[in-house]
Write a structure and sequence with these properties.
This protein has 73 residues and is mainly α. It has two helices and no strands. The N and C termini lie far apart (104 Å). Pfam families: DUF4748. It comes from Dissostichus eleginoides.
């Protein structure tokens, strides 16, 4: 008859789950928040770029270059 109580082999696995699951969920939420912040920044930058590109430009070198190419043909 054994004198000592046997160790439960599932205890370390239970502790790993108790620590790992909440840590994984918190890590996921923090990463998601960071990704959303970066996406919002990129969206704002794109909107600013779009706004700055609207309108007529006089004397644009690109337009002049296109007209030069048309005249050569």
């Amino acid at each position: 008859m054994p004198r000592r109580k046997a160790k439960n082999p599932m205890m370390p696995i239970g502790y790993a789950w108790m620590i790992g699951l909440p840590a994984g969920i918190i890590g996921f939420l923090l990463t998601k928040r960071e990704v959303d912040k970066n996406r919002l920044k990129q969206l704002k930058v794109r909107q600013r770029m779009r706004m700055s590109n609207e309108g007529e430009y006089e004397g644009s070198r690109y337009r002049q270059h296109k007209e030069d190419l048309k005249q050569e043909r």
